[in-house]
Amino acid sequence: MKRKILILLALSSIFSSLFFSCASKVSRTELDLLFDHDFTGLIVPGTADIKAKGEQKNFPYTTINQVWDSAILVLMQEGILVRCLEDSNVIVTIETPPFAIFMEDSAGVNIYIYCMDDLYKRKDKPEKVEAVYNSSSKQKLATTFFEKLATQLYSGEKWKYLQGQE
Amino acid sequence: MITVKATIQIYLPVLFFSTLILCLSCAPNIPTAEYPAEMERTFPHALDEVWNSVQEVIKTSNGTTINTNESAGIIVFYLMDKESKAKVYINVYMKTSTNPNITEVYLTTRLRSGGYMEPVDREFFKNLAETLTNR
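^ inputs. structure came back:
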């Protein structure tokens, strides 16, 4: 009889652990609150921060307007465009993870991408985060975006170095 | 008196099938697209006309705008999915084509959890074309 009870107890503990592992977590992040409030109160990272902490790539033979257009077309397929600030050339996209890009004229156009993983901080315990993105995953995010942007930007363009050789 | 062996023989299949059901119910449901997404359409109207018509379409479809930038030609809004009650985010980007009387309109849809497969784009472009015709 004791063995039967023990087996039942073991089974019930397995079932309960399975149920609880599927249950949704109640902890709320800053990103959850932004979704709840339609992104009002979103703090757009400053261009200095994006430049200092983000990944960078130079896109030659192009203008900032062309990059802006291509970036919008790429980013709108990636996530939700919650901020598009033309005056500061910053676009914030809510994806997994959310990120901001900044463009500046510099022998072509320099693009910086900054992972906004601080939005995964829990509101009740800001020292805890729901998702962690290490430098290699941030690098991967940047590389993927830069590749897509380059394809969009240069597709159908004649290679600039061939100009004047006709 | 039920022996331990008999108990295991009874509970083992029950445990196996229950675990299987639980795992399958927790697995993500990957939707399949029934038709190709219509991301872009051109309209034989100037940008400001298209911009105003897009605003009207959003209003009549009870959309809530979360980002608007007229000079950049961008409006982002959401609609509520009737079945799941989830917010369906819609990015709209408008720009003048090489001909100033032709406007290119790009549209993408997103849920917070990822892509959205319902035909929002078809409905949106249909409503936009009707609104532009009736102006």
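The two ends of chain A are 93 Å apart (CA to CA). The first strand of chain A starts at residue 55 and ends at 59.
thumbs up if we can close this ticket
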